[in-house]
Amino acid sequence: MSYVCVFLAEGFEEIEALTVVDLLRRVGILTDLVSVTTQMTVTGSHGIEVRADKLIEEVEFVNIDMIVLPGGMPGTKNLEECDLLMEELDLFYQQGKDISAICAAPSILGHKGFLNGRISCCYPTFESHLTGAVVTHNEVEVSGNIITSRGMGCAIAFSLAIIEKLIGKETAEDLAEKIVYQS
To answer: In what order do the strands lie in the sheet with 30-35?
Structure first.
């Protein structure tokens, strides 16, 4: 079974984080919300408090199959300021493990040089942060082991791309039908 961690920083975009958790859990992917703060409760960019499953210090990164970075402001900046998360993100990239980011969060990958030569997308106005990427305006882009997406309105498509990557296209299509998703 795949194991995914969705990382939460103060000011994260609630729908981008919770849609991923909801849809991945529906297909049996073990998914944890992980706080990068010292508190289990993290407040999103629209004042919604979400209780994490774990604090970042409790995570055994070696067991994670994919890191998910939701966007939002100042959530994206706060994720990027978390040294432990950035160290582990570097290791994931070096090891070719799966990384996904949505909205403003792909900017973190751009700042790290992870998008060089890759097809990528992000929230409008953040394209300049996707250093070295071939930038599109598609809902989701899968480029090797990196998945990027544009924003809240693309959260279902983003989640389905993660499911397709980890389990397969048939499972993603079946779930899309069950939730009455129309792309």
So the answer is: 54-55, 30-35, 3-8, 66-69, 98-102, 146-149, 140-143
Q: Is 66 helix (H, G, I), strand (E, B) or coil?
A: strand
| Residue corresponding to tokens 């079974």 | 1
Listed in order, strand segments (DSSP E) in the chain are: 3-8, 30-35, 41-43, 49-51, 54-55, 66-69, 98-102, 119-120, 134-135, 140-143, 146-149
Q: What is the DSSP letter of 91?
A: H
The catalytic residues are 103
pTM of the model: 0.97
Per-residue pLDDT tens over the stretch 10-51: 999 999 999 999 999 999 999 999 999 999 999 999 999 999
pLDDT tens profile 73-98: 999 999 999 999 999 999 999 999 99
Taken in order of first residue, the domains within the chain and their CATH numbers are: 3-178 (3.40.50.880)
Taking each helix axis from N to C end, the angle separating 169-178 and 155-166, rounded to the nearest 10 degrees, works out to: 140
Q: How far apart are CA 99 and CA 86, in angstroms?
A: 12
